[in-house]
């Protein structure tokens, strides 16, 4: 299908199904039930899943394939966001120009940063990208305030020209839209106690992510992708084989920068504002976490990682002490308190602690991330089944 | 006029004269060995040929063109392939992919953004790589991760990667270093086979005299950065200067 | 003239902190070959040692002061620190006042323990893994340490004052015969500078004049050869890690009065300290120290009103800019050895 082999096609179809039916899949618990707080099927969160998915897919093209660890990718996302908001201020509230300009501006910026940073490798590369990102962050807060609106962040206003659109509709800023279809529009579907929300913004982002994912698969399977893996494996041999590694790494850097810009543009399309904190190095660290947690160098890993982190960030941080007490209420009082006391540091505001611990465990024990974990489980399961039944049942390899 | 012409090459590292007025001519379609005791400058000379080092003075001409100041990948594109002392391969890639990369390098040059083709649809390249693997009797290992190969197989694979590019000159840096006798003999056989099956020029840097005398048609003896003699293997064997250089070393 | 002097002085305290953190980073990188992203967290832990000591010393019980009333007319309840009731008002009060210097005593064993635990428990297993893995696992550790501190101490900065004796400021202007009040410099900052010099001097002397230090220096230069000599280099490197942790911790303790400690102060310093290490030269101790001071002072010059008016925003980015230029023109840094991590 679409030039993919059978295994990749299968993976792609699975991802298409997951994203298209996400409003159902993420809302498994009936409205008003105890467990409804674990539902993730609301537009805002679903949008974040796919947008950060795009960001991580792009980061993985650089880090997963070439092994160059960038600590400054949030800068491209931030630059893309600013460009997108400006497009909405000056041109039109249609999201297409905003998204396109985000990709282009982030791409240009990544050519500059990549050209300089890639003259070094290893930790020097990491530190150079970090330095560039911090510089952009500081500049966005200070000198570039006319463009970025400093600490307040760049927002739309009623006075914006919007030369191809309208400045205001009924005294308020017109909503971001796709040829008139507002990003905020949602259709709700009630089935029994369940309530499902289908949001225009989510579906736009999901389609964009699917395209981005498809492109990533093609890159992974292309000669270009093979060269990038060769860069990671043995740069010296590549040079002595007649290949110039610089343009290969630069191309990977720029492509991943454009993915970051795309994610930034979509963020703006969903919620038209941009702030400098999106460029801070902790934000760059987050995309590193997502990619590693999911499985660097695998196709599906970054999407899994992004979804995993964003889900738990939202759900975990909503759980508070009283909810914990409810959960453990069936236990004797002393035990209940003790358990709540032990669990409490890891939830709510302590979510980052859980994240940090999980991340360390993954780096130490599971360098291949969740994907490798899944594969190990799969192998364990298959081995057990093989001893039960006849060997060689032709089980499919777990998705890469 | 040889395929490779090295003229008056000098290279200093601080106070150490690593190469002093080296002249060397490798004729087309011959196997030329460069031997010498440790520290004679063999590796330095090799690194000057492939663009890793730049000589202070002198010239290195390959096929009528200067290689000086060119980057390693450019020199490879001119037709020089190099085998390393410890096999340098792509350990994370499969054996077949390892051989396909040099094929792409030959066909598409130093860089091509072929991000939308699919590797396995490149029938021409796959065929070329598989034929090469059959040649070196490694075809049954085509889907194995190269990093998990035995040392002998890694060496074999590296040779395949160099040969598939059909280089005009193959440089071998101690191809049998650290090998057991049996492996060494296998490598000698492999090299003889390669030489017999196609027109190729080889320059071998080697310690092991058994290897040198089994393969070489011309031998250059290097000592303390300068060539002592250049002659046929028969004449080198009995040459007093050579014995002195080697015996002198063994007495230290 | 006085403006220039003021900027140099202003740069000294930040430069001291950079230098101390960079020194520890370099010790760890030079000896263990590990890139430690959790080093900033060690600095932060040090600062929180000061906070903890202050809290311990001010542990109080309530007494009712019959002579005074609160605004409702009830007898006023006063918190009296135990220390004060044990040692009397003047001595006890003095001890509380000197909480920050006293906490140096606590910080040393705490940081040695943390350093040992980190190296033996975690870092040891990463010697042979790629630098990227080292960065990632220590980055994770930094998040964990930071969140633990946040859990116990909250997210807000906690004021941790210096002893009253150092609360005032020098008036260098008047002292040097210039206009009075033109150069005002708090005592504590000067204390910090000399403290940093003492620590740096101590580390260098230790490396220079002890057998232990000699072996470590040899190990930094050529680890394999030293290993071949049959010297148990690993154990010494563990100790070096602990020393680096102590240096970072002490730097943090003394920095507490300058900037009230908060849980993310370590990360803020870490990014800049890394840049400092790179500028100084990866693996070069004198380079790290020199670059720390130079960049600290440079940053303070770049924030002068005249400079900012001429080049807006330069104060924000000067350090990064210098780092980028250095990395591109002289990759081994100002004083780095040739061939160490040059590519």
Automatic annotation (TrEMBL), chain A:
Keywords, in A-Z order: Cell membrane, Membrane, Transmembrane, Transmembrane helix
Keyword Nucleus: no
Cellular compartment(s): Cell membrane
TM region positions: 9-26, 46-63, 94-116, 123-144, 200-220, 247-268, 288-312, 353-374
GO molecular function terms listed in the Swiss-Prot or TrEMBL record: branched-chain amino acid transmembrane transporter activity
InterPro entries, per database record: ABC_transp_permease (IPR001851), LivM-like (IPR043428)
GO annotation, cellular component aspect: plasma membrane
Superkingdom assignment: Bacteria
Membrane topology note: Multi-pass membrane protein
Pfam family, one: BPD_transp_2
Sections of the chain in a coiled coil: none
Record-linked PANTHER family: ABC TRANSPORTER ATP-BINDING PROTEIN, HIGH-AFFINITY BRANCHED-CHAIN AMINO ACID TRANSPORT SYSTEM PERMEASE
Name listed for the protein in its UniProt record: Branched-chain amino acid ABC transporter permease
From TrEMBL, chain B:
Organism, scientific name: Meridianimarinicoccus roseus
GO molecular function: ATP binding; ATP hydrolysis activity; L-isoleucine transmembrane transporter activity; L-phenylalanine transmembrane transporter activity; L-valine transmembrane transporter activity
Protein name: ABC transporter ATP-binding protein
UniProt domain ABC transporter: residue ranges: 4-249
Biological-process GO terms, alphabetical: D-alanine transmembrane transport; L-alanine transport; L-isoleucine import across plasma membrane; L-valine import across plasma membrane
PROSITE patterns, sorted: ABC_TRANSPORTER_2
A cellular component term, taken from the record's GO annotations: plasma membrane
Pfam families linked to this entry: ABC_tran (PF00005)
From TrEMBL, chain C:
Protein keywords: Amino-acid transport, Cell membrane, Membrane, Transmembrane, Transmembrane helix, Transport
Membrane-spanning intervals of the chain: 15-35, 42-61, 95-114, 135-153, 165-185, 192-216, 236-257, 269-295, 307-328
GO molecular function: transmembrane transporter activity
Cellular compartment(s): Cell membrane
Gene Ontology CC annotations of this record: plasma membrane
Bilayer topology annotation: Multi-pass membrane protein
Keyword Cytoplasm: no
Annotated coiled-coil segments of the chain: none
One BP term from GO: amino acid transport
Keyword Transferase: no
Family affiliation: Belongs to the binding-protein-dependent transport system permease family. LivHM subfamily.
PANTHER family membership: ABC TRANSPORTER ATP-BINDING PROTEIN, BRANCHED-CHAIN AMINO ACID TRANSPORT SYSTEM PERMEASE PROTEIN LIVH
Name recorded for this polypeptide: Branched-chain amino acid ABC transporter permease
Protein source organism: Meridianimarinicoccus roseus
């Amino acid at each position: 299908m679409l030039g993919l082999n059978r295994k990749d096609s299968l993976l792609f179809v699975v991802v298409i199904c997951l994203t298209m039916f996400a409003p159902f899949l993420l809302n498994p618990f009936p409205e008003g039930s105890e467990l409804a707080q674990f539902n993730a099927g609301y537009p805002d969160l679903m949008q974040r899943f796919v947008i950060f998915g795009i960001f991580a897919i792009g980061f993985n093209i650089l880090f997963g394939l070439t092994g160059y660890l960038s600590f400054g990718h949030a800068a491209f996302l931030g630059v893309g966001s600013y460009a997108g908001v400006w497009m909405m201020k000056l041109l039109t509230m249609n999201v297409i120009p905003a998204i396109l300009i985000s990709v282009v501006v982030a791409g240009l910026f990544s050519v500059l940063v990549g050209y300089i940073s890639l003259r070094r490798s290893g930790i020097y590369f990491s530190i150079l990208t970090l330095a560039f990102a911090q510089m952009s962050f500081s500049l966005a807060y200070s000198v570039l305030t006319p463009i970025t609106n400093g600490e307040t962040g760049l927002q739309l206003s009623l006075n914006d020209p919007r030369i191809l659109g309208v400045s205001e509709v009924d005294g308020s800023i017109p909503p971001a839209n796709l040829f008139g279809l507002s990003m905020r529009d949602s259709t709700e579907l009630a089935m029994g106690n369940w309530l499902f929300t289908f949001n225009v913004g989510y579906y736009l982002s999901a389609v964009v992510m699917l395209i981005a994912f498809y492109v990533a698969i093609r890159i992974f399977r292309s000669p270009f992708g093979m060269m990038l893996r060769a860069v990671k494996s043995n740069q010296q041999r590549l040079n002595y084989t007649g290949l110039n590694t610089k343009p290969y790494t630069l191309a990977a850097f720029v492509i991943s920068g454009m993915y970051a810009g795309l994610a930034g543009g979509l963020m703006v399309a969903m919620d038209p504002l941009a702030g400098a904190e999106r460029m801070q190095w902790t934000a760059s660290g987050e995309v590193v976490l997502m990619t590693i947690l999911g499985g660097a160098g695998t196709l599906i890993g970054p999407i899994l990682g992004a979804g995993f982190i964003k889900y738990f960030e939202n759900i975990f941080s909503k759980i508070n002490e009283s909810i914990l007490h409810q959960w453990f209420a069936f236990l004797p009082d002393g035990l209940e308190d003790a358990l709540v006391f032990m669990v409490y540091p890891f939830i709510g505001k302590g979510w980052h602690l859980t994240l940090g611990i999980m991340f360390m465990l993954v780096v130490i024990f599971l360098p291949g991330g969740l994907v490798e974990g899944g594969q190990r489980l799969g192998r364990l399961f298959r081995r057990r089944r093989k001893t039960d039944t006849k060997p060689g049942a032709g089980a499919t390899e777990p998705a890469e | 006029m040889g395929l490779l012409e090295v003229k008056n090459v000098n290279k200093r590292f601080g106070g150490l004269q690593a190469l002093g007025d080296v002249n060397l001519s490798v004729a087309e379609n011959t196997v030329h060995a460069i031997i010498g005791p440790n520290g004679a400058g063999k590796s330095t000379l090799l690194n000057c040929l492939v663009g890793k080092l730049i000589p202070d003075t002198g010239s290195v001409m390959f096929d009528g063109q200067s290689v000086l100041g060119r980057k390693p990948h450019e020199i490879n594109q001119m037709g020089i392939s190099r085998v390393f002392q410890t096999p340098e391969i792509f350990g994370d890639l499969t054996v077949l992919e390892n051989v396909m990369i040099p094929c792409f390098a030959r066909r598409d040059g130093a860089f091509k953004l072929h991000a939308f083709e699919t590797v396995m649809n490149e029938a021409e390249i796959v065929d070329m790589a598989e034929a090469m693997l059959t040649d070196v009797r490694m075809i049954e290992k085509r889907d194995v991760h190269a990093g998990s190969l035995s040392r002998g197989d890694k060496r074999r694979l590296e040779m395949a990667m160099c040969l598939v590019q059909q280089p005009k000159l193959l440089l071998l840096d101690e191809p049998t270093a650290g090998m057991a006798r049996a492996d060494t003999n296998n490598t000698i056989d492999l090299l003889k086979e390669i030489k017999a099956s196609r027109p190729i020029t080889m320059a071998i840097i080697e310690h092991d005299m058994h290897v040198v005398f089994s393969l070489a048609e011309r031998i250059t003896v290097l000592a303390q950065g300068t060539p002592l003699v250049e002659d046929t293997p028969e004449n080198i064997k009995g040459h007093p200067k050579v014995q002195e250089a080697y015996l002198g070393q063994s007495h230290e | 003239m006085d403006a220039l002097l003021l900027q140099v002085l202003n740069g000294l305290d930040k430069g001291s902190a950079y230098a101390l953190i960079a020194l520890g980073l370099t010790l760890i990188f030079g000896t263990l070959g590990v890139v430690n992203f959790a080093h900033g967290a060690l600095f932060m832990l040090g600062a929180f040692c000061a906070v903890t000591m202050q809290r311990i010393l001010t542990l109080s019980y309530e007494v009712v002061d019959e002579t005074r009333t609160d605004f409702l007319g009830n007898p006023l309840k006063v918190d009296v620190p135990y220390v004060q009731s044990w040692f009397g008002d003047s001595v006890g009060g003095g001890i509380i006042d000197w909480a920050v210097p006293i906490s140096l005593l606590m910080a040393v064993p705490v940081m040695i323990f943390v350093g040992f635990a980190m190296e033996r428990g975690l870092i040891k297993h990463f010697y042979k893994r790629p630098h990227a893995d080292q960065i990632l696992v220590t980055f994770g550790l930094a998040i964990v340490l930071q969140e633990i501190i946040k859990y116990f101490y909250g997210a807000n900065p906690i004021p941790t004052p210096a002893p009253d004796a150092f609360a005032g400021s020098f008036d260098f202007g008047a002292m040097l015969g210039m206009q009075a009040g033109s150069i005002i410099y708090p005592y504590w900052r000067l204390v910090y500078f000399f403290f940093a010099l003492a620590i740096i001097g101590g580390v260098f002397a230790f490396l220079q004049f002890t057998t232990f230090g000699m072996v470590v220096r040899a190990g930094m230069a050529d680890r394999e050869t030293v290993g071949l000599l049959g010297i148990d280099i690993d154990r010494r490197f563990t100790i070096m890690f602990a020393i680096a942790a102590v240096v970072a911790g002490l730097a943090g303790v003394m920095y507490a009065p300058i900037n009230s400690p908060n849980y993310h102060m370590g990360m803020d310093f870490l990014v800049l300290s890394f840049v400092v290490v790179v500028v100084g030269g990866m693996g070069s101790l004198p380079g790290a120290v020199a670059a720390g001071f130079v960049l600290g002072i440079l940053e303070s010059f770049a924030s002068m009103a005249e400079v900012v008016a001429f080049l807006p925003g330069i104060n924000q980015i000067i350090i990064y800019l210098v780092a980028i230029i250095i990395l591109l023109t002289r990759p081994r840094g100002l004083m780095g050895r040739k061939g160490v991590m040059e590519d």
